[in-house]
Amino acid sequence: MYYSPTIVQLAGFASNSTALALSLITSGLNAVGSIVSMAFVDRVGRRRLMIISMFGIIICLVALATMFYEASDHSPPVSSVESLHFGRNATCTSFLRASQPSNWNCMTCLKASSECGFCANGDSKYWALYIISYSPGMGTAPWIVNSEIYPLRYRGMGGGIAAVSNWVSNLIVSETFLTLTEAVGSAGTFLLFAGFSAIGLIAIYFLVPETKGLAFEEVERMLAKGFKPRLFCMSNDDDDDDDDDDKK
Question: What was the pLDDT predicted at 14?
C-alpha cells in the first residue's frame, strides 16, 4: 500500500497522476474488502478466511514477479535513437546521462524517471487481485483472532505485542522495498515476498485455531487441550467428542 504509485509506475504507467489514481483504486478495494470481511468472517470462519486469503496473496505475488521478470527480460532495449531523436516523444532522456547505458531496458528507464518508458502494464490487475485477496482475509481476520485468543490475564500484553509486531514488520517492509527492487529487481522482490507469505501460510495452518462461535472460556479450554491442525478449520467436533468422553 505504501508504494502503490511506485509499483504502478514500475509497470509502465509513467504519468504521476495516473499512478496516483490507480493507487487510490487499490485503497478503495482495500476498504471494500474490509466490509466484505465483516459479512463473511462469522460464516466462513477466521482460520479458513486467512488460509484462503494467503493462497490468493501467494498466487498474486508470484504472478506479479513473473510479469515483472517477463517485462524486464523481453522489453525493447533503450538506445540513443529512442532517447534523443523523437523530441517530445523521447522514451528515456535519463539514458543519455547513464554510466552504463548498454545494460538499460525500459524497466531501468522507469526506475530512473517517471517521464519515460514503454513496459508492459499488466500489473494493475494482479495488484488489484492482491488487494482483493488480502483485505477480506489477512487484512482483518488476524485482528479478530487477536482479540479472541488470549486468556483474560494476558489479553492486554498479547494485544500490545501483536500491535508492535505488526508495525515493526510494516516498518521493515516500507524501509527495504525500494532497496530490494534495486538489489534483486522488482521480480525478485515480489518473489521474496511470496516466499515469506508461504511461511506465513504454514504458520497459520499449524498454529492458528478456529475461534468462530467460541466464548473466551471455550477458546482457553481448547488451547489447553492442544490444537490439532486440519486443512481448513479446527474441528470443534473434536472438542465436543472430548466433552462427551469426559461426561461418560
Answer: 55
